Amino acid sequence: MSAQSYDAVVIGSGVIGSSITYELGRRGLRTLTIDRNGGAGLGSTSFSSAIVRFTYSTYPGVAMSYEGLAYWQNWREHLNADDDDDLAKFHQCGMATLKTTGGHHLKVLPHFDSIGIPYEHWDLEAFREHLPELDLRSFGPPKRPDDDDFWDDPTELLEGALFTPEAGYISDPQLAAQNLYRAATELSCEFLFNTEVVSIIQNGGRITGAQLADGTTISTPVIVNAAGPHSRVINEMAGAMEDMSIGTTPLRQEVHHVPSPAELDFEHRGFSIADDDNGIYIRPDLGNNILVGSTEPDCDPLHWVEPDYQGEINAGQWEAQVLRLNRRLPSVGVPHHKRGIVGVYDVSDDWIPIYDRTCVDGFYVAIGTSGNQFKNAGIAGYCMSELIAAVESGWDHDTDPISVTGPHTELTIDMGNFRRTRTINPDSSMSVHG
Ligand SMILES: Cc1cc2nc3c(=O)[nH]c(=O)nc-3n(C[C@H](O)[C@H](O)[C@H](O)COP(=O)(O)OP(=O)(O)OC[C@H]3O[C@@H](n4cnc5c(N)ncnc54)[C@H](O)[C@@H]3O)c2cc1C
Questions:
Q1: What global pTM score does this model have?
Q2: Does ligand 1 have an atom closer than 6 angstroms to the CB of 406?
C-alpha cells in the first residue's frame, strides 16, 4: 500500500466490486479495493452460472441487462486489453424461456418490444427443429423426486418458448473479475487482499475511513459496500440500515454439472433454457457438459445461511435438479459422480439489487445481487460511478433519482428502481433463471 488515504475505498473485489473500482479509476479517483480473499473474484462470483439474459420483469431490469450484454460483446475494448491477454469469453448460445401458464415471458415481452430486443416465438415444431431430444410435455408444477406424482406421464404439451438469440454465458466468471482487477491496476487502482475490513469510521454522519483487522486505519470520504453475501454485515458496521426498507440475506444455492452424451453435444447444439415448468434452468458448458441450477420452485425449501457458509452438495437437491433435467432431456441419464458447486446468493427482499447511496453520507451499496447480477457487472460498475459522482457533487438522489444513459445502447436506466427505500416491487419474479 503506497498511501493510507484514498478518494474511495471499495469493500469486495468480486465482479461487482472490481467493476466499480475500474469505473472509479477511469474517472481519475485514487481507489483502494479491500478483500478478505487472496485475489479478485474468489467469493460468490467464482460460483456463478454467469448466464447473460434479458428476461427481467421490470423495464429497468431489462434495459440494464441489455446494456450489460454490450459490455461482454466488447470486453477487450472495455478493458483496454492487449490482443494476447487471457480474457473471459462470451458464448452466445441463445436462451429459450419456456412459456408457462401466466408465465414470465408475458411480463418481459412489452419491455423487449419497447427496447427492440430481438426474439423469436418458438412453437413446438420450431423447438423440435433445434433440439428434437427435448421432451416438450408439461411436467409442472415442479415437484421433488420423492413426490408420488414426479414420474407421472403428463397429458399436456408446453405452449412453446420465447427465444432470445443474443443471450449466452461467460465460461469463466472468476477470470472476468480478474480481468477487471488487472484493468483497474493499469489505472493505478490499488488492491489489498487477505485483508478484512472490521469497522467503518464516520464523523458527523459522514464517512471518514475504514479500519482493517490488523488495526490499520484507511482514510477516505467514500466507501462502497460490494461485499456480496457479507453485505448486511458491512451495512451494520456502517450503521446504514436505518432507512433501508429492503434487506439482504445470504441464501444457499447449488448448481450441478452433468456430462452431455456425446451424440447430444449440448455444448455446441444446446442453448440455455429457463424452465419454470420443471423448476430448473440449464445452459451448455465447456467440455460438453450441462449446467443445471434451480429456479426456486415452491416445493424446494430455501436455505438461509450465514455469509461465511461453505457446504457440500446435498444428495437430495442433486437428485431433484438432475432428475428434473432428465425429464426434459431424457438422453442425459444420471451420472454416478455428483459434480457441482455450492454457492451463496446475496438475496434482497424482492430479488432486485440495491445500487444506491445510504443514510450515511459517503457510504454506498452495490448489494442484494440475488443470483442474477453477474451479467450486469460492466454496467453496474458504470452506474455506481455515475451515482457516486452525482451524489458527491451535491445531487439529491433520494428525492430526484439519477438516470444513467447506457454508453453502448443509449438506453435510460432509472436508478430509482434500485433504491434502498423502495417498496417491494410486485412485478418481481422473486426467483432467478441465472
Ligand atoms: C450459484 C450462483 C449462480 C449464479 N448464476 C448467475 C447467472 O447465471 N447470471 C448472473 O447474472 N448472475 C448469477 N449469479 C449472481 C452473480 O454471480 C453475483 O451477483 C455476483 O457474482 C456478485 O458479485 P459481488 O462482487 O457482488 O460479490 P462476491 O463475488 O461475493 O464478492 C464479494 C467480496 O467481498 C469480500 N468481503 C466480504 N466481506 C469483507 C470484509 N469485511 N472485508 C473485506 N472483504 C470482504 C469477499 O471476500 C468477496 O470476495 C450467481 C450466483 C451464484 C452464487
A1: 0.98
A2: no
Are residues 310 and 263 part of one domain? yes
296: left (phi over 0), alpha (psi -120 to 50) or beta: left
Question: Separation of 431 CA from ligand 1 center, angstroms?
Answer: 17
Q: Say yes or no: 139 and 17 in one domain.
A: no
Q: Does 264 sit in the ligand 1 pocket, CB within 6 Å?
A: no
Ligand 1 pocket test: pick from 308, 369, 376, 432 the residue with the most ligand atoms within 8 Å of its Cβ: 369
Render pLDDT for 367-419 as a digit per residue (tens, 0 to 9): 999 999 999 999 999 999 999 999 999 999 999 999 999 999 999 999 999 99
Structural domain for 298, as ranges: 92-168+249-348
Q: Whose CA is nearest to atom 2 of ligand 1?
A: 48
Number of CB atoms found within 10 A of residue 124's CB = 15
- Looking at residue 54, its amino acid is F
Q: Residues 6 or more apart from 422 whose CB is under 8 A from it?
A: 245, 246, 350, 416
